[in-house]
Amino acid sequence: MIKLNKIKKRPLKSCFTFNIEKKPMDNEPIDKYAEFDSEDTIKHIILALESTGNQVIPIESNKNALKLLIKNNYDVIFNIAEGLNNSIDRESVLPAIFEFLNIFYVGSSPLTLAISLDKPTAKKIWTQKGISTPRFQIIYEIEDLKDFNLNFPVIVKPTHEGTSRGIFNDSYTEDFESLKKKVGDTLSRYEQPVIIEEFIDGREFTVTIIGNEEPYEILPPVEISFEGLPGNIKHFCSYEVKTEFDYPDSTVCPANITAEQENKLKSIALRAYKAIKTRDFGRVDIRLDKYDIPYVIEINPLPGMSYSPEVNHSMIKAAKIAGYEYNKYIIRLLSEGLKRGGKN
Questions:
Q1: What is the pTM of this model?
Q2: For 45, 168, 205, 231, which has the most beta carbons within 10 A of its beta carbon?
Q3: CA 95, 98, 104, 105 torsion: positive or negative?
Q4: CA nearest to 126, candidates 273, 303, 312
Q5: In sequence order, what are the beta bridge partners of 261?
């Protein structure tokens, strides 16, 4: 176990990089900034990092970030920035700059971040490794639907988004006409290819992993509860489910599962985590079908860290069940990165 109260003998000069949520403009998608963090989350992460006795310099991920990074000689960067614009590798930009400037940082590499945000590439790697993931097709233009060969129902998603961006209740389709309409809308609105996945009917879970080598720390699985939803709302993590119907009991931890089910979830989550070389920490989203077969949906190396109990960030809920107070959990993540770099 890493000693949380002894990060380093001398105080570290650390940097914390992030994006602050904002309201989209009238001509922008309603979920454009869904990945960004609230001012409250930013404040509490800074307080957690400062509780180690280290100096913490916050830098928002914008056009001024490079100048501020060059200006100071940092020992370590704690990064949760999602990047700017809609580039397919936006989450990789700041970590690539950190590496160019030779500044040590906590979290996954630019390559892993790019793969995790590219759903088809991640799924191809998992499939090659024998890790179950829903069957899928990539659509670059509406004409590609002539080769559609999946089984309905299916889910339509942008290929390069996270935090359920571009995934709405009507992304679930049961016939070709509604599929064609949704694919056309998604191609137009998000200006990127579309991935169509076969829908896995069953329960949904998320599993957080911490570590870079055995023994990894795997937090208790969190179940996404769809109980109490109106009849017209489908049971998957759509934008509507995450916003309009996001209640304190929408995520359940500890989940009501058997020991065998928990082992299956943790095992496939760790395999998915290691397959794309995730570093320090990450969260894996999984569907468990009616036969108890787990399917990896996606992985998030930049999972939400909201302090507020009103925000259902699954990783933080799992951390509390595992016995972590908020500040100590943030320090745990920092410590894992410092351990990897031989800096603790």
A1: 0.92
A2: 205
A3: negative
A4: 273
A5: none
Give residue 59's pLDDT.
96
Does 164 lie in the same domain as 65? no
Judge if 92 and 166 occupy the same domain.
Answer: no
Given 198, 213, 240, the domain boundary residue is 198
Q: Are strands 136-139 and 55-60 parallel, antiparallel or unpaired?
A: unpaired
> What single-letter amino acid sits at 214?
E
Q: How far is CA 220 from the centre of its chain?
A: 17
Residues in CB range of 34: below 8 A, 6 or more apart: 163, 164, 165, 239, 242
Structural domain ending residue among the three candidates 198, 217, 252: 198
Whether residue 336 sits in one domain with residue 208: yes
Closest CA to 82 of 21, 28, 32, 35: 35
Identify the CA nearest to 69 among candidates 109, 113, 15, 107.
15
Tokens of 301: 């190396």
Please check whether residues 181 and 71 belong to one and the same domain: no
What one-character DSSP code corresponds to residue 170?
G
Structure tokens at 208: 């957080």
d(CA 156, CA 168): 9
In Å, how far are 31, 147, 225 from 234, measured between CA atoms? 18, 26, 12
At which residue do the structure tokens 């809920």 appear?
A: 317
| CATH code of the domain covering residue 140 | 3.30.1490.20
Tell me the pLDDT tens digit for each residue of 28-72.
777 777 778 889 999 999 999 999 999 999 999 998 999 999 988
Mean pLDDT of 162-190: 93
Domain with 62, as residue range(s), is: 13-107
User: How many angstroms separate the CA atoms of 63 and 23, rounded?
Assistant: 19
Residue type, 309: P
Q: φ, ψ for residue 298 (rounded to 5)?
A: -165, 175
Residue 157 belongs to some domain of the structure: yes
**Minimal CA–CA distance to 331: which of 237, 179, 185, 210?**
210
Structure tokens of 324?
């972590």
C-beta separation of 264 from 218 below 8 A:
no
